[in-house]
Write a structure and sequence with these properties.
Helix content: 55-70%
Largest sheet: none
Number of strands: 0
Number of helices: 3
Structural class: mainly alpha
Distance between the termini: 31 Å
Strand content: under 5%
Shape: globular
Length: 91
């Protein structure tokens, strides 16, 4: 994870704990074949689309956060794809 300089006195930036949990959950679900590689690729695209259209998002949030989420989801997708393999989705 990136260090954005917000760590102080042993505390982590808000959201880091959630990120670790979600990364682990995605890996676990892929490992158990609950999620396919294609599912993770679709999720990656949906997060990227949401980031690209942040101003029109029906569930608005900080555009910086959506961009960060898109980058992190792409990183997770790459890792899970290399670690567990599987078929890519059909386009």
């Amino acid at each position: 994870m990136m260090d954005n300089g917000l760590q102080t006195h042993g505390m982590t930036p808000a959201g880091d704990e959630s990120l670790v949990i979600l990364q682990s959950l995605l890996c676990l679900l892929r490992e158990k074949n609950v999620l396919s590689r294609a599912d993770i690729e679709e999720l990656t695209d949906r997060v990227a689309m949401r980031a690209a259209q942040a101003e029109r998002d029906p569930l608005p949030c900080c555009s910086e956060a959506t961009q960060g989420a898109a980058r992190e989801m792409a990183r997770i997708g790459d890792y899970v794809g290399h670690r567990y393999g599987g078929k890519h989705r059909r386009i």
